[in-house]
Amino acid sequence: MRTVILLLLSNTFMTVAWYGHLKHRDAPIVLTVLVSWLIALPEYALQVPANRLGYGQFTAAQLKIIQEIISISVFVVFSMLYLGEMPSWRSGLAFLLIVGAVALVVADKSPRPSMGADAPSPTVAQGRAR
Fold first, then answer.
1. How far apart are alpha carbons 130 and 125 in whole angstroms?
2. With b meaning 16 or more CB within 10 Å and e meaning fewer, what string describes 15-52?
3. Residue pair 114/120 in contact by the 8 Å Cβ criterion
4. Which residue of 66, 94, 97, 125 is most buried, as measured by CB atoms within 10 A?
5. pLDDT one-digit tens code per residue, 108-124
């Protein structure tokens, strides 16, 4: 659960950094980039621990897919509340397809990665042996 909360917070910062400036198109682009970088810094400070904590409970692929659904969820809420853009039926359908992808990858019962410092997951180790 901590992983998901950290990913949610992380993606909130990143969405604001990437899209918050769209309401301020008259601001100089250099200033916009600098402010966006400052907003994005907490994103990294949350994303890295989220992945570190989650790896082992989830595979790297599962973490990435979970991160993507959180990212899109945060973006949809942000675009509605901040930008005033309502999603179309096509956007809604695309979102549901991504939810399906999350369900597929999280339900995967493949072996989880080892918690050892440098130990590869069984899948990676099998690939090297071939």
1. 9
2. bbbbebbeeeeeeeeeeeeeebeebbebbeebbeebbe
3. yes
4. 66
5. 776 666 665 555 554 54
